[in-house]
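Students often ask what a 'structure token' actually looks like in practice. Rather than answer in the abstract, let us consider MerR family transcriptional regulator, a protein of 248 residues. Its sequence is given first.
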Amino acid sequence: MTAAGRPQNHGLSIGAVLAQLRGDFPDVTISKIRFLEAEGLVTPGRTPSGYRQFAAADVERLRFVLAAQRDHYLPLKVIKEQLDAVDSGAEPTAALPRPPRRLVPIDAPAENVGLPVADDFAPGKELRLTREELLAQAGIDAPALAELQQYGLVRPGPAGFFDPDAVLVARTVKAMTEFGIEPRHLRAFRAAADREVGLLEQIVTPVYRHRDPEAKARADEVVRELAALSVTLHTLLVKAGIRGVAGC
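Now compare that with the structural description of the same chain:
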């Protein structure tokens, strides 16, 4: 028995696994590992007392999952399909899809913004921009910003600050105005986004009501995954529609 009363065994505890992964994946948490287990991406053994026991193969499996998310921006469903295929004896995928650009510099043109992934929606240290900073970085004037706010395309936080996404939104709208599209024409985008947020809230709110910290962590992961998938779906539907208009 260890000092904590846990039987000594050949497997790794979840804390030991976390320590091994943190060097390459500093954002990983115990809640994240538990979530991946709940999704069937890793299946550690259990001691008679119910403690998780991770084998070396489990750790490598977790490394694959985390790297596929971070480096190749794959949704968990696709990652699980690849792992299931390997488990069944199939050859692993020779080449993973080329990842979209997830981390976009603040001065990147709107057309370079890639499809989002779940990590884009993860909470982090919030960068707050003043109104003047937003105007300078977006390259718009005060009347243009007022119009963006009027139609709900850009919204300051409770303290009156803006986040970096507001810069990209403003730049995107500015680029669209060069084609004769005005902010008032884009109210449908705001309404559609609000409807998608409402749908996600309906799905995860019951989970958030649980007091179990693991349930909340799981809900956080689910809402980020769904948010990324919903934006990807919207993008693909627009692309398909445009191809139809162009007769392609």
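One point worth highlighting: Residues 1-8, 94-114 have pLDDT under 50 and may be disordered. Ask yourself how you might have guessed this from the sequence alone, and why that guess would often be unreliable.
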